[in-house]
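Known limitations

Structure tokens in this collection are predictions and should be treated as such. Users comparing against experimental data should check residue numbering before alignment. To illustrate the layout, the record for Addiction module toxin RelE is reproduced below. The input appears on top and the generated tokens appear beneath it.
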Amino acid sequence: MGRWPGTREIVAHPNFIVVYQVADRIEAISVVHSRQNYP
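Generated tokens:
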């Protein structure tokens, strides 16, 4: 589960986290650097 409600996260690379949601399809919401602070 992701840090935002209704989202999931996957580590795509040691430095990047992909935030996505699953509904009828997978939708990438954001790509965040792992050292960046976010909710």
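For this record: The domain at 1-39 is CATH 3.30.2310.20 (YaeB-like fold). The first strand starts at residue 8 and ends at 13. Please report discrepancies through the issue tracker.
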